[in-house]
Amino acid sequence: MSIFLSNEIIVFLLIELILIVLMAISQVNIVTIVRYWDFNATTPLQYALEKKNYLINTILYFTVSCKVILFLFFIQSLNALSGIVPGAMCSAGVVGANHYGNALLLLKLLLIFGFGLWLIINKLDLGFITFPYLKRKYLLFTLLFAGVLGEFVLEILYFSNIPLTVPVFCCSVVFQAPKLPFGYTQTLLVLFFYTIFGAILVLNHMKQTMASFTCNLLFLFIAYYAVTYFFGLYIYEMPNHKCPYCMLQKEYYYIGYLIWGSLFLGIFFGIMPFLIERITQKSYDYLLRYSSVCHIITALICSFYVVRYYLMTGVFL
After folding, report:
1. Is 273 exposed, middle or buried, given 0-12, 13-18 or 19+ CB atoms closer than 10 A?
2. What whole-number distance in Å separates Cα of residue 292 and Cα of residue 298?
């Protein structure tokens, strides 16, 4: 039996291939546009390049938007595969089924952030008649396209090497060993979570883009461990159930999508203003407000489960 017999995987890879073809066509034209672009010229070539630029922008906007949506389909496909892969009870077993899973997931997250940055730069560029960021946004896309090609290779390697005859380890094994970084205790981890959360709110209010960029990257690291090894216990209402994936399932009302979604959006809006300023030399700090809102949603949801469990049982896990 092959993992490619799964309808979800076939559809997923087919869509990925179509998007790569569209991106490749765009990339070929991008080379021509960047090489010969001169906005001050009044030649037929420049006129043709400007028309081609609008067409390429439309194609790229469509493909990049689809890649963002396709990431959610990928996560859902992993949940579906847990019913096929022996030993897998959730996405944890599927992702860890071979050496390519975690690398693929990390690359996808990095590309999602990169695509989001490209969409913002593209919007800013189209807002000016002179297209001041054209070469920079196309250079960024070229780097992202190279990442997409690497991603597709990893997808083929990952899906073709998922074992269907040998049981895999799932979250009951993968996340049970003490894996808190730097010897942190749960108490210290939660203290760091709320401390950095508070610092981000203050820095966002003060519009300190560089400091917020740094704190958001640190918060991503701390929040992952806090949700997996502390807050998740109260979501599952079990002291030994440590998993970042099970909360994505129906049994927990898909609350994981809201927790991880709001966390990643908060990180995204928190780091983008600094990167945009570096690329365009323009202030884009209003995104920090969205970062604060998303982080507040994450903290409120996580805190709610802890408080609810304590009110129901009178004890902490």
Report:
1. buried
2. 10
The pLDDT value recorded for residue 179 is 66
Contact status, residue 97 vs residue 85, Cβ threshold 8 Å: yes
Would you put residue 237 in left (φ > 0), alpha (ψ -120 to 50) or beta?
Answer: left
CB atoms within 10 A of CB 315: 7
What SS3 class is residue 99?
A: coil
Helices (H), 37-100: 44-81, 91-95
Low-confidence ranges of the chain (pLDDT < 70): 1-2, 5, 176-179
Q: What is the pLDDT of residue 114?
A: 96
Round the CA-based radius of gyration of the chain to a whole number and report it.
22
In this prediction, residue 164 carries a pLDDT of 84
The predicted structure's pLDDT at residue 89 = 82
CA atoms within 13 A on the CB side of 4: 8
| pLDDT tens-digit readout, 150-191 | 999 999 999 999 888 888 887 877 776 566 777 778 889 999
> In a 3-state reduction of DSSP, which class is residue 97?
coil
The upper half-sphere exposure of residue 165, i.e. CA atoms within 13 Å in the direction of its Cβ, equals 2
The greatest distance separating any two alpha carbons of the chain, rounded to the nearest whole angstrom, comes to 77
Residue environment code for 139-169, b if the CB has 16+ CB neighbours within 10 A, otherwise e: ebbeebbebbeebeebbeebbeebeeeeebe
Q: What sections of the chain are H helices per DSSP?
A: 7-36, 44-81, 91-95, 101-126, 134-160, 171-174, 186-205, 209-226, 232-236, 255-280, 287-313
CA–CA distance, 281 with 271 (Å, rounded to integer): 15
8: left (phi over 0), alpha (psi -120 to 50) or beta: alpha
Give the rounded distance of the alpha carbon of 303 from its chain centre: 23
- Tell me 39's DSSP state: T
Q: What is the pLDDT of residue 297?
A: 98
pLDDT recorded at residue 34 = 93
